[in-house]
Design goal:
With 508 residues, the chain is mainly β. Helices cover 5% and strands 37% of the residues. It is globular, with a radius of gyration of 24 Å.
Length: 508
């Protein structure tokens, strides 16, 4: 009996090793920094079928005309880009730099257990049809947070959180059909979080074709700061990570970075400068600017503009929320060329009026000074959350967000896009949804998780809002076209017939 008791610890250790319970990655799952928004599912790996299309439950196949004070908009039916039996959430989208018919959307995909990855959804015909899969390659899993881009050569790149918890990336040379193995960024720790990517698509830029990924580091030498890595060879290799944001001030940390390239090749990064206590409220907008391809930063400050974010574990319906900023730059060549726009969701402090409004932070001088403007035009008392911004090819500024205004109980949401054609001074709201849904956490993922981002892009005189909802019975990625082209009559003077003349016509 004594021998049996002496051997029991060895049997126990052996069992734990064989069952994988002492795996280093598993231990990190259960010791995650509470500020991190990483979604780590639980359970065992399961196959994620690639040909699992299910029919859309949205029976509306008609376009709608939305009449506004700035013109009529033709809004197409809401469509599922890749109907699936697994959930799709957190939906960024990007467009080919020179071919607006090609768009690349992604999502966090989850089938249960630990079958978690990043989806690849592609159209090459301007949104008429979509193809793709719920993983980069068959059976390729990661911890999500997709950051898709298409570089100047049409090469698809995507950054994400690897299974070790570090940031890595893959590339595709055939429009997303197959992908390279994961390349983990040198210097990224297993406590990396919330990455997004961008690419230099400015032919006159000295760094034309360079692609970038920014993210938050929660460990190592640059704890609580925004870091960057870039590639100059289409994703074959990436630079060692380096800091973008300054050392945080006392009681603050940096999270939720986004990156875009200006018309002169300038690299712009924004992030939320958040409090380390309470609800981790986003306290101010962080901003950095590089003129040498992301190597050094002529501007890097955590207090570019005031914010009062909506970070919460329960905004409503037990869903979590954040105010991570999204950025875009006017590259239209028009009168506002180079203006910078960062979208957020904020509460109570002007210009926000209630517990969640969509806000634009705008700089007209390269990031030196900023103005904040409320985007949504509804009466106070509704929720507008998870916004993203796209400056289209005509210089129109377009902000997408979830919105509860049309539900008296404020527990169901639709998608709106607010559009400005005067640089953000005034806004018009456009209802995109042809259905509504009741936001709720996705079972089996992080507490309160419905997704942390939303997406929008543009091309061919159309906007492409891109979001997730569970109207089909499970969270799926949706999109719809919004025709922004208008063809007003040119000025004219009618010389004949004379005023008050009567014109008589005859049958046939």
């Amino acid at each position: 009996m004594k021998k049996l008791l002496m051997l029991l610890p060895f049997f126990l250790i052996g069992y734990l090793q064989l069952s994988g319970q002492t795996n280093e990655n598993d231990s990190k799952k259960w010791n995650q920094d509470p500020r991190m928004s990483r979604v780590i599912p639980n359970g065992n790996y399961a196959p994620l079928p690639q040909t699992e299309n299910i029919p859309s439950k949205n029976k509306n196949e008609s376009s709608r005309i939305v009449t506004t004070t700035i013109g009529d908009f033709l809004v197409g039916p809401n469509i599922l880009v890749h109907p699936s039996f697994g959930s799709q959430s957190e939906t960024p989208i990007t467009r080919h730099p020179t071919n607006p018919l090609i768009m690349f959307g992604s999502a966090n995909t989850f089938r249960g257990g630990t079958a978690f990855s990043t989806g690849v959804y592609v159209t090459t015909d301007g949104g008429i049809s979509w193809s793709g899969s719920d993983t980069l390659n068959s059976g390729s899993f990661n911890y999500g947070d997709p950051g898709p881009v298409i570089d100047k050569d049409g090469r698809f790149l995507i950054s994400y959180i690897t299974l070790t918890g570090a940031i890595g990336a893959s590339y595709s040379t055939n429009s997303g059909l197959t992908w390279s193995p994961t390349l983990t960024f040198t210097g990224s720790t297993t406590s990396s979080d919330k990455n997004l990517s961008g690419t230099d698509d400015i032919p006159s830029s000295p760094y034309y074709g360079r692609s970038y990924t920014v993210y938050t580091e929660f460990a190592g030498s640059y704890t609580n700061r925004i870091l960057i890595s870039f590639t100059t060879d289409g994703g074959v290799s990436w630079s060692a990570v380096a800091p973008v944001s300054p050392v945080p001030s006392a009681g603050h940390y940096h999270q939720g970075a986004d990156i875009k390239i200006g018309p002169g090749g300038e690299v712009y990064v924004v992030w939320a400068n958040a409090l380390t206590t309470g609800n981790l409220t986003e306290d101010s907008l962080g901003f950095a600017k590089s003129t040498d391809g992301g190597v050094s930063w002529v501007v890097s400050r955590s207090n570019a503009d005031n914010m009062n974010g909506i970070r919460s574990n329960n905004l409503f319906n037990n869903i979590r929320s954040n105010s991570f900023p999204r950025i875009d730059i006017d590259k239209s060549g028009g009168q506002r060329n180079g203006w910078i726009y960062a979208s957020t969701s904020e509460k109570f402090i002007a210009p926000a009026r209630d517990s969640a409004d969509a806000i634009i932070h705008r700089s007209t001088d390269g990031g030196t000074t900023w103005t904040s403007i409320r985007v949504n035009q509804d009466p106070p008392g509704n929720f507008q959350y998870f916004s993203a911004v796209r400056v289209d090819e005509q210089g129109g500024v377009n902000v997408i967000y979830y919105d509860t205004r049309n539900t008296p109980t404020k527990d169901s949401a639709q998608i709106y896009v607010s559009r400005s054609i005067d640089g953000g001074d005034t806004w018009t709201d456009i209802l995109i949804s042809d259905h509504r849904f009741k936001p709720k956490p996705i079972s089996g993922t992080a507490g309160g998780y419905q997704g942390d981002y939303i997406g929008i892009t543009s091309g061919n005189n159309k906007l492409w809002p891109y979001w997730c909802d569970d109207y089909s019975g499970i969270y799926q990625a949706w999109t719809a076209s919004v025709n922004t082209s208008s063809t007003p009559l040119n000025s004219f003077s009618l010389n004949s017939p004379a005023v008050s003349s009567r014109i008589v016509t005859y049958p046939n």
